[in-house]
Specification:
This protein has helices at 2-15, 154-176; strands spanning 19-20, 24-31, 34-41, 48-49, 57-60, 66-67, 82-87, 90-95, 100-104, 109-111, 116-118, 123-129, 135-145, 151-152. The chain is of the alpha+beta class. Strand 8 and strand 9 form a beta hairpin. It is elongated.
Length: 177
């Protein structure tokens, strides 16, 4: 029984440091004196596929994590989703609430529209077009990894605590015997 408790305690100490975290990317768009930053899941669960004028796109219901302009939808879940396009010569994105309708040769994601993966490390220039399809403004963008400290789950902390108590109990019995 003592060996079992000792082994269980050691197992708890080894397993406790494991922590869960979500993999996210950071999309930053800069242009016209403004900067927009979005937290994107690396492999998103899409909110839906675009249709009609938005054919060839998927959309995510996300709001900017930070912005130098105001989202006309307000706060909370985005009332105006961001559409990400898969175009023959690259990609693009559109968010009417922020006034963004950008296109460019770099693709912002790989995979299919129903199972996209954002291209980590991708940087480049996207452009907005005016009514006669000439370049109105240029915007730079970058997709970078979000670094975060791992946060232990409560169950891991319980395992750590019971493992430490078990080790102390086994050590105490061995000294008193």
């Amino acid at each position: 029984m003592r060996r079992f408790l000792l082994n269980l305690s050691l197992l708890a100490l080894v397993a406790a440091p494991l922590a869960a975290h979500a993999s996210t990317d950071l999309l930053t768009i800069t242009g016209t004196g403004n900067t927009w930053t979005f937290d994107l899941p690396s492999t998103p669960t899409i909110s839906g596929l675009g249709s009609g004028a938005y054919a060839g796109s998927f959309y995510l219901d996300i709001t900017p994590a930070s912005s130098t302009t105001t989202d006309t939808c307000g706060t909370g879940p985005s009332c105006d989703p961001i559409y990400f396009y898969d175009l023959p010569d690259g990609g693009g994105l559109e968010d009417d609430a922020l006034g963004l309708n950008l296109f460019g040769p770099p693709a912002l994601f790989s995979g299919t529209l129903s199972a996209p993966t954002f291209t980590l490390g991708e940087t480049g220039t996207l452009v907005s077009l005016n009514a006669n399809d000439t370049v109105a403004n240029s915007y730079s963008f970058a997709i970078t990894a979000v670094t975060s400290n791992a946060t232990p789950e409560p169950s891991s902390l319980v395992l750590l605590g019971t493992g430490a108590i078990g080790l102390l109990g086994a050590f105490r019995r061995r000294i008193l015997a």
